[in-house]
Amino acid sequence: MNYFIHKDGQQIGPFNEEAVRSMLFDGRLASTDLACREGDSNWSSLESLLGSDPAEVNVLDREFNLYDTYSDQMSSLLDQMAETEGRQLKELSRQLDQKLQIARNHVDAVRQQFPGAFEVKAMEADILFMMARYKVSQQGFFHSASGRMLNRGKRKKSLTSLSVAAATRMVANQQEKNRAMESIALLDQSIGTFDTAGARFAKATILKMMGQKVPALQELNYIIANFQSDDSYMQARQLKDEIENPPKKGMCFVATAAFGDYSSPEVQFLSRFRDTVLAKSLSGRLFIRVYYSVGPCLAAIISKSPMLLACTRQLFLRPMIFVLRSLFRRDL
User: Fold this and answer.
1) Which pLDDT tens digit goes with each residue over 18-45?
2) Contacts by 21-29 with C-beta closer than 8 Å and gap 24+?
């Protein structure tokens, strides 16, 4: 059965029932919007046209609300994992694995009771979305380990340690790429099950991180065209502007000199801070411009003295990075 919808003073459609329920679920339509079945001239509210057994609806709503609680718990664990490392990260991973298993079992049970319900598809898509986030949250593990090994090799001036660190970093980069590809595959499954702006925005973000700007823009343009009432709409607009108007790139001269490697975690953090925070404001862009003019000279000066390098690293850069991580942890 197909339906025509009267929305914002115009008639749209026809849409099949699944599409109508999907639009009701994500807020693009309201239950009070007028609609009529294809081939019929009688208009009435969607609520009356799509009416179901009240007892059945109550059960499904209850099961969906329970899953929503699981989803919030998984999202909270993922947020904590983004700011944690070491033993605590392993414990959070264990808790998330448990929550994912509980959520899967719940969805399987609801699917058996309500096969084909769009709420079931929404839950299935959300689990895939959580799994994709989980993959992304694990990307930094190997990179952090290789960074620690590299620093240890420098301190000991050990060619063996430096060689192992370089090899570990190559594995880390490949691991991160593989996890990113796995995340995109999960997000594609999520979108195919139940199309949401959130999943598409997550996919665009990962594609941008991988340097694949064209497919990232395709996802963002789709969100902008089809999800204008969704919370991700403004984020999609902003990310599109960032991709189409990239900030001027340059080295973090002083930090690179102090830490000895442009790919060190500290220098990479400062680079992200430049691109995601400073470059978004007029005063920040002015600071970047001034820094690029004096940074090479400062780096050349401190590079001549091991004491200056150590002081710059320990007394200035590390405290500054600690403060920036605390203040801008949601942006970086």
Assistant:
1) 788 777 766 678 778 888 988 888 888 8
2) 21/50, 21/118, 22/118, 22/194, 22/195, 24/50, 25/118, 25/119, 25/122, 26/196, 26/197, 26/227, 26/230, 27/229, 27/230, 28/227, 28/229, 29/5
